[in-house]
Design brief:
The structure is a homodimer of 220-residue chains. Helix content of chain A is 39%, strand content 12%. With 220 residues, chain A is an alpha/beta fold. The first copy, chain A, has one domain: P-loop containing nucleotide triphosphate hydrolases (Rossmann fold), CATH 3.40.50. In chain A, strands 2-3-1-4-5 form a five-stranded parallel beta sheet, sandwiched between helices. Chain A is globular. Chain A starts with 24 loop residues before the first helix and ends in a 15-residue tail after the last helix. The interface between A and B is large, with 85 and 85 residues.
Amino acid sequence: MSEDTGDVKQQRSTNVTWVESAVTREARETRRGHRGAVLWFTGLSASGKSTLATEVEKELFSEGYFSYVLDGDNFRHGLNGDLGFSPEDRTENIRRVGEVAKLFAESGALVLTAFISPYRRDRDRVRALVTRPQDFIEIHVSCPVNVCEARDPKGLYKKARAGEIPNFTGIDAPYEKPREAEITVETDVGDVKTCARQVIDFLRTHEYISQKPQPRSNKG
Amino acid sequence: MSEDTGDVKQQRSTNVTWVESAVTREARETRRGHRGAVLWFTGLSASGKSTLATEVEKELFSEGYFSYVLDGDNFRHGLNGDLGFSPEDRTENIRRVGEVAKLFAESGALVLTAFISPYRRDRDRVRALVTRPQDFIEIHVSCPVNVCEARDPKGLYKKARAGEIPNFTGIDAPYEKPREAEITVETDVGDVKTCARQVIDFLRTHEYISQKPQPRSNKG
C-alpha cells in the first residue's frame, strides 16, 4: 500500500477539486509535432554510441524536435552511483535506465540512450516495459571489437588487456548482439553523419517525426 | 572506472568524428521559451499535492510550456518498485526521484514532483543536487492533518488509525515542514485554482516563464 498514491482521485473537501483532465501524452505529442519514443543505442565500448546519439540529437534539434540523450556518465555519477559492474548491477543499471527512458517517452520526448547494455535479456525487458510497442527502437551500433580496440579513446581496452578492468565487455565479458534490432548501423563502414542519417530516415519513414524534413533553424 | 564513459571524447578512427557541439541546456530553454526547473511539491497524504501539480501542469500546457508530473504511482510501480517504506527506503526513494527530476530539468522541462517527502534532509539533498540553485523550487502543500484525515480519499488514514499501515506520515511517522520553502500554499484555505495561480505567479515573477501570460491555445 503506497501512501503516495493516496493523494487524490476523489476529494471530500470542496476546497480541493479533483482535476479531471490531465495533459495527455497524445496532447503533448500533437503540440510537439513528433512522437515520444526511446532510441536505445547498444554496442561495445568505443563503438560510437554516444557520438552517434549526440549527432542524432543535433539533427533532431535543428529540425525543431525535442530530444535528450541519457548517457552512462550522467547515470553512473547520479542515479546509478550505487551500482558496480557485476552482472546483477549491470542488470539493475539497465532496468533503471529503462524506467527513466520510459518516463521521458511518456512526457513526449524522443529520448536517446547510450549504454553498452550487453545482455539481450536486459534490453528485451526494457522493450517489454514501454507503453506502446513502437516506443522502443533498438539501434545496434555495430563495430568489430578489434576496431573498437584500435580506437580505444580512453585507453580502457588497454587497461582491460592488462587485467586492470575485469569483466570488460568484448574482452572477458560477453556482448550479446541484438537479433532483431530496428536499426543496425556499422560505424566501421559509414561515418557519423551517414549513420545518423540512417536513424533519422527510420524516424521519418515510421512517422515518429514529420516525413518531410523541417526547415533548419539556428535561432534558439 | 566506467566502461560507459569510454566511448568518445577523442576518436582515432577517421570514420567516427567527435561531435563538438551537443545541444546545450541554454539552447533548449531558448527554444522552449521557459527555463528548466524542478517544482518539488511536499506535504501530507491527501494534502493535495498531485491535484495541485496536475492543475499547474494544465495551466502551463495551455500557455504552451512543457512540463511533466512525476508522481508516486509511476515511481512505486516502476523505478522504485524495489523499495518499501522504511526510513532508509524513503530516503532512497527521494534520492532517485531527485536524480530523475534533475535530468528532466537538464533537458529543459519544468518537472513537477508530487511525493510526501517527509524528511527535510532528503529534500535538502535534492536541492543540493540540481545544477543551478534556482533549479529547485520547494512548494509546501500545507494542510492540517485533521483536514487531510477528513478528506482521506482512499481510506488510508482510517487504515493507519486501525494499525493496518504502520509508519504513516502524520499519524505515527513524522512530517518535517519546510523551513524556507520558495512557495507555501494552504489547500485548506484556497481552492485548487487559487493555489495553482500562486505557483504560476511565482514562475512568472522569477522569470521561469514569460512575465506576460501567453495566449491560450486549445489546439494540440
